[in-house]
Amino acid sequence: MEEAGLDYRATKDLDIVLCIEALDKRFINQFWKFVSEGNYQIRKRATGEKCFYRFTNPQNRNFPTMLEILSKKADALGERNAGTIVPMIIEDEIVSLSAILLEQDYYNFILSLKVEIDDLVIADERCIIPLKARAWLDLTERKREGAEVRSTDIKKHKNDVYRMSQLLNAIPIKNVPNQISEDIQNFVNAINDEDMLLKQLGIENTSIKEISEQLIIVYCSN
Questions:
Q1: Which of 66-75, 110-119, 183-192, 207-216 has the lowest mean pLDDT?
Q2: Which one of 83, 85, 135, 159 is most buried, counting C-beta atoms within 10 A?
């Protein structure tokens, strides 16, 4: 976003998508070395074949404050450090943005659009926007049903969609899964912000209506 001249919300955590198809022993060894050097507290939640890891409170403050990893394979990271892994309550997985990746459509979508920058494979704005929109929809619904969800957590996902939409080209993405197109359409139908919010977010020369139209063009033109 810096390269595009846009402000962004700083983050201290790191969400990691493990592509099981590409995992090997070397990667797993390097990953646990990273966790060890950061001296993280490790939590794990496993249900059937899926597994969610959260690494928090690193003693080395030069490391990310939190790592969140979702894997469709329960033993993807092996059993190393098993003695330091404690159970994670189910709410942690439900409210996590990463949990959406349990859905095959989202997982495949990210793999199809991944890009490499400075030898690092990342999910760019085309991938992250649908994830953020879906997270906003899920958290909004949970709060409506009476769950304890912080309003700030809901707002940040929506605001990130607004910010990252400024990086999109108005070019339809080919073969967008129906589920993702539906989520974007539901997001557009649900938002009701005033344009003043965009100025507060440092977004100029556009409107909520224009952002909505662009999202529809990019994700719902199949």
A1: 66-75
A2: 135
Q: Is the pLDDT of residue 187 over 50?
A: yes
Sheet with 50-56, strands from edge to edge, namely 13-17, 66-71, 50-56, 41-47, 85-87
- The residues that bridge with 117 in the sheet, in sequence order, are 120
d(CA 174, CA 49): 31
93 conformational bin, left if phi > 0, alpha if psi -120 to 50, beta if neither: alpha
Specify which residues 29 forms β-bridges with. none
Contact present, 183 and 143 (Cβ < 8 Å):
no
* Every domain of the chain and the residues it spans: 1-88, 103-222
Task: Check residues 88 and 219 and name the one with the higher pLDDT.
Answer: 219
C-alpha 99: how far from chain center: 9
- Continuous segment of H or E residues that includes residue 180: helix 178-190
Q: Strand, coil or helix: what is 192?
A: coil
Q: Model's pTM, two decimal places? A: 0.73
DSSP H/E element including 35: helix 25-38
> β-strands 66-71, 120-122: how paired?
unpaired
